[in-house]
Amino acid sequence: MSTSSTIQKISVDHDQQMLSILWGDGETAEYQLDGLRRVCPCVFCRGGHENMGQKMDAQELIRKGKRNWKITAIKPIGNYALQFTWSDGHNSGLYQFIALRQLWDDYLNLLTPKDL
Ligand SMILES: [Zn+2]
Questions:
Q1: How far is the CA of 92 from the centre of ligand 1 (A)?
Q2: How far is the CA of 39 from the centre of ligand 1 (A)?
Q3: DSSP letters along 88-114, please?
Q4: How much is the CA Rg of the chain, to the nearest whole Å?
Q5: Any residues with CB less than 8 A from the CB of 57 and at least 6 apart, and which?
Q6: What's the CA-to-centroid distance between 2 and ligand 1, angstroms?
Q7: What is the CATH number of domain 7-111?
């Protein structure tokens, strides 16, 4: 299956503070690590169960990173999500493929001027 919500390849560049995902449809997405951490979908980072299920905010990828991160492990959860272990030990966020792809598409939309 090669679609926009399957992943072919993941790589992390800690010097650049970027995580890259090569999606099944050939699109390469690059996520700034601090932004990716700020959209962590776990209940703790979201600030409560009532905030679960909301979209990841692509503005966080535009905001300048303030903190340097290391991703010490990336664990696939079935074929639908990734679990990152961050350098502070936090690993409770399950980043669904579909949410990561949506985040990237939203980010690109934010970068594209709407009044062209
Ligand atoms: Zn979290």
A1: 6
A2: 8
A3: TS----EEEHHHHHHHHHHHHHHHS-T
A4: 14
A5: 39
A6: 29
A7: 3.30.2020.30
